[in-house]
Amino acid sequence: MAEDEPLEADRIEGAPHPRETSALFGQHGAEAAFLDAFNGGRMHHAWLIAGPRGVGKATLAWRIARFLLSRTDEPAGMFAPEPPTTLAIPDDHPVARRTRAMSEPGLLLIRRAWDEKDKKLKTVITVDEVRRLSAFLALSSAEGGRRVVIVDAADEMNPQAANALLKLREEPPKRSTLILVSHAPARLLPTIRSRCRTLRCTALAPGDMSAALAAMGEEPGADAEALADLAGGSVGEALSLIHLDGLKLYRDLAALLDGAPNMDRGRLLSLANAMTGRANAEKFDLTLRLFARLLSRLARTGAGLPPEIEIARGERALLTRLAPDAQAGRHWADLQQSLGARMAHGKAVNLDPSALILDMGLTLNQSAAATSA
Hints:
- The protein is an alpha/beta fold.
- It contains 15 helices and seven strands.
- Strands 2-5-6-1-7 form a five-stranded parallel sheet, sandwiched between helices. Strands 3-4 form a two-stranded antiparallel sheet.
- Strand 5, helix 5 and strand 6 form a beta-alpha-beta unit.
- The mean pLDDT is 90.
């Protein structure tokens, strides 16, 4: 992709866009709940699809949108067809073709916009994006009269956008459906959450993870279990780990921590220097997430819940040495929270990535001196 080519805020790098994805893995409960409401005549005007990143929430949203827009008014009574048992529609259906091409008149997608001036995605969904909803809902209905709006991700709306959405949805038009995709529902206005019916998507089990990756042409092979565990059941995170060699990176972090409280400073400095530059931005973001994952595994080990799967050789012994008891576990849990805030602040103020990685490594080294068995 060219450096100044518009990116899509709702696309995971290396994966097909959810509008191009017909199969959904591991979220049968959420799909069944929606179908039950539809078949039972209990359709809500607004749906909140909540769950961790990368588990299929947006794929479910697009499946719902295609399903609704493909439905026409059907006879009732004895001539009524059998109720649908799936949200899937044929790939060659006109609605499926139009949604893939982003030309479906009954669908509006609200997401972070591309900033033409700075040649990058905006950091939030602005009120201007939400205001498009008013004109869309005022248009004459198309293809059976349904209209669907997807907001992905709703967490990214700034306060003005969230309030505008709330105001525009106070009196929802008939046969219109709003679908909010949310990674963190607690960040949404309570009044927005209260007006939605929630569909919960969960982390994928290893089998579903492997099937989802295979559908995208990815084969984790012998590392399938370690990949699923490190990704936390998120296909999106698994793709990042595959494309950025994340398993090796995590193992390097574990090896670095294995030297604590006498960490190899030269090795830490080499890791930090490898994170600088725009070309390494994704790897830097992944490294921050992997630091957080390592801290989480330390905290859980101290709480008596060591990982069932070793991602790095000798990891279980390392975690037990650094988190031998509940007190050490609480220490690592507190550190995960404080370093998480420090990471977020560092990114917000564009702190030099190498400085942030060095700071985190040295903090972990210092903490190991206080918790080692």
